[in-house]
What we know:
Number of helices: 4
Largest sheet: 6 strands, mixed
Order of helices and strands: HEEEEHEEHEEEH
Number of strands: 9
Radius of gyration: 20 Å
Structural class: alpha+beta
Shape: globular
Distance between the termini: 64 Å
Amino acid sequence: xxxxxxxxxxxxxxxxxxxxxxxxxxxxxxxxxxxxxxxxxxxxxxxxxxxxxxxxxxxxxxxxxxxxxxxxxxxxxxxxxxxxxxxxxxxxxxxxxxxxxxxxxxxxxxxxxxxxxxxxxxxxxxxxxxxxxxxxxxxxxxxxxxxxxxxxxxxxxxxxxxxxxxxxxxxxxxxxxxxx
Length: 180
């Protein structure tokens, strides 16, 4: 009888352990909109040769839906909490920029590059193709609100599609009450 109780207790504890690993060992499937950095050292100029689904995300998002005060569906300007904005400003950006991945519920939707304002201004040929985000050097820049960043899209190919208005992204931001 005692042996059977011990066996049941061991099975119960094992089941709890497996459940906690399953829950704690993965990102939340309901996290909504989030911006992650890459866990790997991938430069923005190399992303065209990399499959987006193969890029490993950092363990936690750089920007979560909780960090967003509001998101403009028209301009893709994101007003952030002061803490999240400070985190963005403290990024150490190499000369080639830093890759970010926009996700919904931990599913990669598109990638882009963080650049300093100076890096983008010094590019003789203009900004790189794709989605870029200039990291501001102060709290108000280029006509944007304080604590705001903008996801900009540039392409020299007129056939290129802009991924920023992906329906999954818009729906996620609407559900969170962040879209205006």
